[in-house]
Design a protein that fits this description.
The complex is a heterodimer of chains A (114) and B (110). With 114 residues, chain A is mostly beta strands. Chain A contains no helices and 11 strands. Classes of the chains: A mainly beta (114), B mainly beta (110).
C-alpha cells in the first residue's frame, strides 16, 4: 500500500530553472495539498485541491502553479526557481468533507535552489 | 493573528514526566482538530484527532475548548521515543485545507 508518493525526493536547481514536483495517492481521496516547510515556519499551505478539477490558493502561492491531473495526481510546478523556494515540500491527501479525517503525507521533496 | 498558534518550545523533560502543549486557533467556525507528530526530517503523521468531549489514547490525552478556542495535548509518563515535534492542525470547514501550527518541540532525556 503506497499511500502518497512524491517524486523526486531530492533536487538541486539553478536560479531560473523550472521543474515539476509530482504527487500521486492511491487511497481514492478527494482532497490533495501541497505544503512547504522551512525552519521555524512550520508547514505553510501553497495550494490545495478539494476535488478533481478544482484548485485553490493557500497561504504562499506566489511562484507556484498546480495541476490536478486526475483524482490520483496533483503536481506542483516552479516556473522560474528562486533561492527563496529552497525548502522541503510535502504533498498530502485526505478524504473530503467528513470531520476528523486524517491527512496522509508523502515523504517530502528536499529542494535546493542555488 | 495567525490562524493556529503554538508555543514552539523546546520543552525539555526527563523520562516519566508529564508535559502539556496548548494550541490556539483564530477561526471560531473551525470544525475539526488534530495533533500530528513529526520526527526530524520525516513527514508528519497523525497522532490523534481531538473531539469536543476530549479523548484519550494510552498516555496521550487531547482536549478541545471551543469557548476559548484552544486545544491541548497531555503526555503522561514521557518516553525517550516521544521526542519529536508536535503539530496542532485545524480544518476550517468541510472542503477546506488543513492549517498547521508551527509545532512544539519536545525533547525527553534519560
Amino acid at each position: 500500500n503506497a499511500g502518497v508518493t512524491q517524486t523526486p525526493k531530492f533536487q538541486v536547481l539553478k536560479t531560473g530553472q523550472s521543474m515539476t514536483l509530482q504527487c500521486a495517492q492511491d487511497m481514492n481521496h478527494n482532497s490533495m495539498y501541497w505544503y512547504r516547510q522551512d525552519p521555524g515556519m512550520g508547514l505553510r499551505l501553497i495550494y490545495y485541491s478539494a476535488s478533481e478539477g478544482t484548485t485553490d490558493k493557500g497561504e504562499v502561492p506566489n511562484g507556484y502553479n498546480v495541476s490536478r491531473l486526475n483524482k490520483r495526481e496533483f503536481s506542483l510546478r516552479l516556473e522560474s526557481a528562486a533561492p527563496s523556494q529552497t525548502s522541503v515540500y510535502f504533498c498530502a491527501s485526505s478524504a473530503q468533507g467528513a470531520g476528523n479525517t486524517e491527512a496522509f503525507f508523502g515523504q517530502g521533496t528536499r529542494l535546493t535552489v542555488v | 493573528r495567525k490562524e493556529v498558534e503554538q508555543d514552539p518550545g523546546p520543552f525539555n523533560v526527563p523520562e516519566g514526566a508529564t508535559v502539556a502543549f496548548n494550541c490556539t486557533y483564530s477561526n471560531s467556525a473551525s470544525q475539526s482538530f488534530f495533533w500530528y507528530r513529526q520526527d526530524c526530517r520525516k513527514e508528519p503523521k497523525l497522532l490523534m484527532s481531538v473531539y469536543s468531549s476530549g479523548n484519550e489514547d494510552g498516555r496521550f490525552t487531547a482536549q478541545l475548548n471551543r469557548a476559548s478556542q484552544y486545544i491541548s495535548l497531555l503526555i503522561r509518563d514521557s518516553k525517550l521515543s516521544d521526542s519529536a515535534t508536535y503539530l496542532c492542525v485545524v480544518i476550517g470547514q468541510a472542503g477546506t485545507a488543513l492549517i498547521f501550527g508551527k509545532g512544539t518541540t519536545l525533547s525527553v532525556s534519560s
